[in-house]
Amino acid sequence: MERLFRKGLLSREKVSHAYVYRAEVNRMQMISRVIDDILQSFTTDSKDSYLLAFLDHAVESDTQALDMLEQMIKDKREAAAAKSGEGNG
């Protein structure tokens, strides 16, 4: 638990003679950190190879994956456009 606390993944509060730990990141944030750490360890490859490998895996594991990825990309682009428009108004 101490290691996870030092990495910023947990917070803690001392209660009596013990610590009570709480998660500091949600599941999606944790997955994102793990993926980022993995990709950082393979710095010699381009981002294209990672994206293609991910896409191949998604297609092989679920026939609806392409539609889902397409919708997720659309949602992310819309959110990014809305966010960039907030500062321009």
From TrEMBL:
Molecular function, one GO term: DNA binding
Listed GO biological process terms: negative regulation of DNA-templated transcription
InterPro entries, alphabetized: BlaI_family, WH_DNA-bd_sf
Keywords of the record: DNA-binding, Transcription, Transcription regulation
Pfam family, one: Penicillinase_R
Keyword Transcription regulation: yes
Domain of life per record: Bacteria
Protein name from the UniProt record: CopY family transcriptional repressor
Organism for this UniProt entry: Hyphomonas johnsonii MHS-2
